[in-house]
Amino acid sequence: MKTFRNRSVLASGFHAPVCGEVECLDDVLIVVDGDGVIIEVLAKDDPAYSDRLAAARTDGSLSELPKGTYLLPGFVDLHIHAPQYPQLGNALDVPLEVWLQKYTFPLEARYQDTAFARRAYDVLVSDLLASGTTTAVYYGTIHEDANRLLADICIEKGQRALVGKVAMDNEAECPDYYRDASVSAAVEGTLGLIDYIREHPDNGEGRVKPVVTPRFIPSCTDDLLTELGAIARDHDCHVQTHCSESDWEHGYVLDRHGMTDTESLDRFGLLKTGSVLGHSNFISASDMEKIKVREAAVAHCPLSNVYFSDAVFPLKVALDKGVRVGLGTDISGGPSGSLLETARNAVTMARLLEAGTDPDLAREERSNHPGTRIDFRTAFYLATAGGGEAIGLPVGLFRPGYQFDAVLIDPEAPLGSLRLWPELDEGDQILQKIVYTASRPNITNVWVGGTQVSAAEH
Ligand code: GUN
Ligand code: FE
Question: Model confidence at 368, in pLDDT bands (50, 70, 90)?
Fold first, then answer.
């Protein structure tokens, strides 16, 4: 199963072309070209199906996935702080503004040491691939060498990724030991990484892309935000940042700029097609409209929001308005690197938002957010096609023109946590069980652009 380039793959599984709906794929034939792009998907009732299947069998280009396994599009994680992986599961006891100064800036400052960076990034990218994250949107640090290393490691291991040099120059909010020395230092670092990634000799397919990354408004001066907006425009780059994440942060921007994060990012040219706004819990209806019109997207980070936002992002409201949304683990603000777990948490948090949480209140008084739940179908869409659409990449679906980025789920994996009962489970209930109960051992093979990038050892 090493590579599926120039092969036809016979598989069963699921994908979600429409938010909230799941398509069951039953013994479909997926034809992949030499670049790892899907050129045809034939269902069993397609008139050409039997001939094509027979031909692929005869000419030896058929790869048959084992019966009883399920192929899913690879997962898209829209919000990861790569340098924070060493503190995953730690440091969740204080508010955002304290967490940054007490734990996070000191850890990120360590990436001055490239040996440390190499160790951390190596294990991070391998772990995320093994967890099914085929596309990752990464914040790096302020350090040129460590950022280049992160891009190198993604390219070497085959992960599709956006990699950003974190820009942060505001003396009032960033410590002396971890801050861009000046606007021009942050600009040079950003431009340097863009060139490095785009000209990388092993990145001919453009699998890794640069992303302009103002950490968030509090950590940047207005001069820097202006420059970064111009770079994103002139170099046609994605943008990522944090937006209206916590009460403190949302209030800080209202105080400093007299407007919301969304409005302010927009005037700096940072709200554009493919901009990824982390969290966005406190955005207004007009912010949502602006995000939609600009074709930017929200990275919904349900688990992180529990610890650092004290609020649930109004996901269903945003989706109903037509805002692009995908999921983010927010490593290490969220203590899990798994997008499956994040999808579960998106369902759970939406249920809590709808139902309310205060047991002292009577049922009918507990919440004023009716109709804001989502189900596993929407969560699965967000983890796959929604994430791909957010950053404008042809990933997350088994469709002609899309990359063959995929994970194989084996319910029989010995150490797995997924248990199917053939006489009980059918149709998209199987996907429901996968979303709710599958774990890393169940993800036995992972492909990016038709090339296998991770495989379980057994
Ligand atoms: N806001 C600014 N920096 C960060 C970060 O590293 N994590 C989170 N969750 N929010 C931030
Ligand atoms: Fe974050």
Answer: confident
Give the Å distance between the CA of 279 and the centre of ligand 2: 8
At the fourth CATH level, the homologous superfamily of domain 7-73+398-455 is Urease, subunit C, domain 1 (2.30.40.10)
pLDDT (0 to 100) of residue 365: 94
pTM summary value: 0.98
Q: Is the CB of 405 under 6 A from ligand 1?
A: no
The CATH code that applies to domain 75-390 is: 3.20.20.140
Q: How far is the CA of 78 from the centre of ligand 2 (A)?
A: 10
Domain boundaries, the chain: 7-73+398-455, 75-390
Alpha helices in 359-438 (DSSP H): 376-381, 387-390, 428-437
pLDDT at position 2, please?
81
Q: Whose structure tokens read 């209806």?
A: 285
Alpha helices in 168-272 (DSSP H): 183-198, 222-234, 247-257, 261-267
Q: Give dist(CA 352, CA 383) in Å, integer.
A: 20
Q: How far apart are CA 420 and CA 433, in angstroms?
A: 8
Contact 342, 310 (CB under 8 A): no
DSSP 36-49: SBEEEEE-TTSTTH
Q: Which ligand is nearest to the CA of 178?
A: 1
